């Protein structure tokens, strides 16, 4: 009985995932955090397109790209590098920061 | 130290909420403490492993391993919650009747506690691995901070546990005959919220189309990083800028669970008396 119960939702969700599509993205940007400060600051990116940000954490502490206005972000352990996608963003200025050092790291991202 | 405690509190709050809902949902089920401990400890252990291998995991799926891994474990939790919910549709009525009328523990029989242990394990693992990385980062940056880190970390974990306990005892104030109905509703919402998170991870990894990047934006009202928003995120799947596919996954999960619960969850057609005697034999 339990097998039959579990199988149906699996099929449903798999079907919904079947539309998997991978869109190519060449909009890549490098971002570095050192002494809890991001460079470049502000970070300028194109509006209305998905962009890939590669974050290099040159501190020994863990950092997490966080924004109250932008969806997405990622945690990067000390001395490591990680990539993530954000956007498409409408043209404008957005604030972002390292969640663990909010005051020291707060800066802006400009989409245009 | 207080800022460390606050960050740890925010990280583990979601796991604490999941545990409190599962505890309330399994009220009166024997050996539930055992399964919940297995889930929690498994989650802590898994969280530490994920933190240690964070870089390796990150390298999978062309740099999107972290998102894919999160999506996979979250999907697993969705299935376990759905299984529990559908099972409860069949047996919940008997369980609450027995708890209510006889005030005694129900015989668990085939109660899917392993499934709920997995759900707890996933919740603890996901939040726990970030907490471990964060706390480790403090010490890696300055080993003189070890004592501060430990105090702050423990304080944060303790406050998270208190918040979880508050929700649990709050839920228990619900009349016993309604308890399983309420917790079952909470579990369906938990599953729907996790399904939405799961596809959210895959959209973030650029593996799923978003079907509308931001269906609405309520971040002016409640940003995703506030504590209230984290609570609502866990309880009902709140997110301030949902993608279309997240809302779709949310609705699909609720509809699937409710439909399947109706299909499989019919109480024994030969009447309650019969089912009760059958359970006593079991």
From TrEMBL, chain A:
It holds the Pfam family Cupredoxin_1. InterPro entries: Cupredoxin (IPR008972), EfeO_Cupredoxin (IPR028096). Residues 11-111 form the EfeO-type cupredoxin-like domain. It comes from the Bacteria. Residues 1-21 form the signal peptide. Transmembrane segments: none annotated. SUPFAM superfamilies: Cupredoxins. Keywords: Signal. This is EfeO-type cupredoxin-like domain-containing protein. It comes from Pseudomonas turukhanskensis.
From TrEMBL, chain B:
The keyword Hydrolase does not apply. One of its GO terms (molecular function) is ferrous iron transmembrane transporter activity. Its main location: membrane. It is a multi-pass membrane protein. It comes from the Bacteria. The keyword Zinc does not apply. Keywords: Membrane, Transmembrane, Transmembrane helix. InterPro entries: FTR1/Fip1/EfeU. The chain crosses the membrane at residues 33-54, 69-92, 113-138, 150-172, 184-205, 247-268. GO terms for cellular component: high-affinity iron permease complex. It is found in: Membrane. Pfam families: FTR1. Belongs to the oxidase-dependent Fe transporter (OFeT) (TC 9.A.10.1) family. This is Transport-related membrane protein. It comes from Pseudomonas turukhanskensis.
């Amino acid at each position: 009985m339990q097998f039959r119960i579990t199988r149906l939702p699996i099929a449903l969700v798999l079907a919904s995932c079947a539309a998997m599509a991978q869109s190519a993205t060449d909009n890549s940007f490098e971002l570095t955090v050192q002494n809890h400060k991001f460079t470049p600051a502000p970070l300028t990116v194109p509006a209305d397109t998905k962009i890939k940000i590669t974050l290099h954490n040159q501190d020994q502490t863990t950092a997490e790209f966080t924004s109250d206005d932008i969806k997405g972000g990622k945690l990067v352990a000390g001395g490591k590098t990680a990539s993530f996608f954000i956007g498409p963003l409408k043209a404008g200025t957005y604030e972002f920061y390292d969640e663990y050092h909010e005051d020291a790291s707060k800066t802006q991202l400009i989409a245009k | 130290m207080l800022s460390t405690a606050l960050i740890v509190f925010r990280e583990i709050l979601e796991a604490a909420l999941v545990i409190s809902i599962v505890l309330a949902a399994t009220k009166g089920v024997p050996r539930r403490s055992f399964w919940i401990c297995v889930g929690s400890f498994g989650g802590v252990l898994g969280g530490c492993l994920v933190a240690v291998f964070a870089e390796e995991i990150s390298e999978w799926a062309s740099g999107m391993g972290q998102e894919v891994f999160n999506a996979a474990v979250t999907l697993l939790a969705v299935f376990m919650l759905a299984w529990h919910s559908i099972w409860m549709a069949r047996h919940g009525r008997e369980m609450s009747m027995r708890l209510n009328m006889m005030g005694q523990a129900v015989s668990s029989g085939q109660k899917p506690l392993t499934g709920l242990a997995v759900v707890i394990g996933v919740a603890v693992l996901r939040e726990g691995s970030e907490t471990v990385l964060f706390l480790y980062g403090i010490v890696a940056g300055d080993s003189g901070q070890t004592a501060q880190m430990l105090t702050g970390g423990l304080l944060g974990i303790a406050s998270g546990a208190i918040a979880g306990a508050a929700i649990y005892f709050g839920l228990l104030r619900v009349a016993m005959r309604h308890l399983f109905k309420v917790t079952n509703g909470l579990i369906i919402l938990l599953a729907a919220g996790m399904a939405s998170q799961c596809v959210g991870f895959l959209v973030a990894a650029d593996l799923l189309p978003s079907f509308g990047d931001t269906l609405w934006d309520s971040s002016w009202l409640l940003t995703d990083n506030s504590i209230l928003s984290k609570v609502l995120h866990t309880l009902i799947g709140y997110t301030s800028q949902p993608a279309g596919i997240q809302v779709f996954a949310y609705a699909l999960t609720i509809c699937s669970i409710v439909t399947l619960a109706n299909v499989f969850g019919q109480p024994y057609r030969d009447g309650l008396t019969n089912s009760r005697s059958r359970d006593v034999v079991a």
